[in-house]
Automatic annotation (TrEMBL):
Originating organism: Macleaya cordata
Lineage of the organism: Eukaryota, Viridiplantae, Streptophyta, Embryophyta, Tracheophyta
Domain AB hydrolase-1: 122-383
An MF annotation (GO) of this entry: hydrolase activity
Stated name of the protein: AB hydrolase-1 domain-containing protein
Family statement drawn from the similarity comment of this UniProt entry: Belongs to the peptidase S33 family.
Pfam families reported in the protein's UniProt record: Abhydrolase_6
Keywords from the UniProt entry: Hydrolase
PANTHER family in the record: 2-SUCCINYL-6-HYDROXY-2,4-CYCLOHEXADIENE-1-CARBOXYLATE SYNTHASE, ALPHA_BETA-HYDROLASES SUPERFAMILY PROTEIN
InterPro entries: AB_hydrolase_1 (IPR000073), AB_hydrolase_fold (IPR029058), Serine_prot/Carboxylest_S33 (IPR051601)
Superkingdom: Eukaryota
Length: 391
């Protein structure tokens, strides 16, 4: 983690936060903790109606003030603005993120640095995805485990992080280092890392690169990905390499999401994949304009580099020599047959036995009735399996 401490000293954005449940009695808290999560964020609020939102307003170093945008919808809570002493330190924008907090979390890296940080989990998306992929699932976790908070990020070149300029190659390792810098900046110590597909290798790379700010023990969940060779999905599943190539032929601005969906389907991609891809389009036309216009929110050239790195990166050494205090969990989707070879399963089972003798842990899980999109295909089953990490 060389460079992380010095990284905290410079900056160009400010934050403020309001939360609102402080004067509730313990009994009333228990009554609502399955219905409420607090979300702090650095972009537009989720359009949900049962949560209390505090929005981080980004500013650059030339601006003198910041705004707090808060909305309370359908749920009556006591609002208490936490007082800050002095100005909030200017900090560099590393990645766009959402912090989904359980109802019993009483902490903010901005407001009260004297309190120990609550247990934190980091949720990482795959190639061409974004933090919004985990939004509903994270809120469900926060409701069930109100002492926890959940950090959702847009990895470099994806979503709102695509506009944040990054140095160096766009690789699995650099994406992992970005997340490590972010958690150091937020002063949180993740105890659980959950990564889907490409994000799974990012989580493993975080363990490889840093003793801090990762806790010991730390649980790592690699969802439907192996540490080494990337095998393409079967019919009806995603083929990221082919998808990236096809998207590179499209204009940067388009007039219709439906037109892009139809074009993808005609080229052989599934309807589900096509509809998922166009979530990366953002409307750019002016309000009131009769002509609609959308632009892509990702950096496709950078994503192509990241996917090449994903195919080339081999992290078996972390699994077969898992550090003490680290528990690595692999989850194989039952219908994701083409991504897993017998040699992968044999190596993971061998690593299970070795890790048990060395103070670490490796475990294999199977999620039934699910293809590669595990958090969409069988969210209930995934929730049951992951819940063991938050008890």
């Amino acid at each position: 983690m060389a460079g992380v401490s010095s990284f905290l000293a410079c900056g160009c954005w400010k934050t403020s936060i309001t939360v609102g449940e402080s004067e509730l009695r313990p009994s009333s808290i228990r009554g609502i903790n399955r219905r409420l999560a607090i979300t702090t964020r650095v972009s537009r609020p989720f359009e949900e109606d049962m949560f209390h939102f505090a929005r981080f307003a980004l500013t650059d170093s030339r601006r003198a003030s910041h705004k707090l945008v808060q909305s309370s919808i359908r749920m009556a809570l006591v609002d208490e603005r936490l007082e800050r002493s002095g100005d909030v330190a200017n900090l560099p924008q590393i990645l766009a993120y959402d912090l989904v907090q359980g109802a019993l979390v009483r902490w903010s890296s901005v407001v009260d640095k004297s309190k120990p940080d609550p247990p934190t989990a980091v949720l990482l998306h795959g190639i061409l995805g974004g933090r919004k992929n985990w939004a509903s699932f994270a809120r469900r976790l926060a409701q069930e485990f109100p002492m926890w908070q959940f950090l959702l990020v847009d990895l470099r070149c994806h979503g709102d992080s695509a506009s944040i300029k990054k140095k160096g190659p766009n690789t699995v390792a650099s994406a992992a280092l970005d997340v490590l810098k972010l958690v150091a900046q937020l002063r949180v110590t993740p105890r659980v890392l959950v990564g889907h597909s490409f994000g799974g290798k990012v989580a493993l790379s975080m363990v490889e690169q840093a003793a801090k700010p990762l806790a010991r023990p730390v649980r790592v969940w690699v969802l439907d990905a192996t540490p080494g060779k990337v095998r393409p999905g079967g019919d009806g599943e995603d083929h990221p390499g082919e998808l990236i190539t096809f998207l590179s032929t499209l204009p940067k601005q388009v007039s219709s999401k439906r037109g892009i969906v139809n074009a993808l389907i005609q080229d052989g991609f599934s309807k589900d994949v096509a509809q998922w891809v166009v979530t990366n389009l953002r409307q750019t036309s002016s309000p009131g304009s009769s002509l609609s216009s959308f632009s892509w929110v990702f950096d496709l050239k950078g994503i192509a580099e990241m996917y090449n790195s994903y195919e080339e990166t081999n992290l078996w050494k972390i699994v077969e020599g898992v550090p003490r205090g680290v528990h690595v969990n692999f989850l194989k989707a039952e219908r994701s047959l083409h991504r897993w070879a017998l040699e992968d399963l044999q190596r993971i089972h061998a690593a299970e036995e070795q890790a048990a003798d060395e103070g670490g842990g490796v475990q294999m899980h199977v999620l039934e009735d699910a293809g590669h999109w595990v958090h969409a295909d069988n969210p209930d089953g995934l929730f049951r399996i992951l819940s063991s990490s938050f008890q």
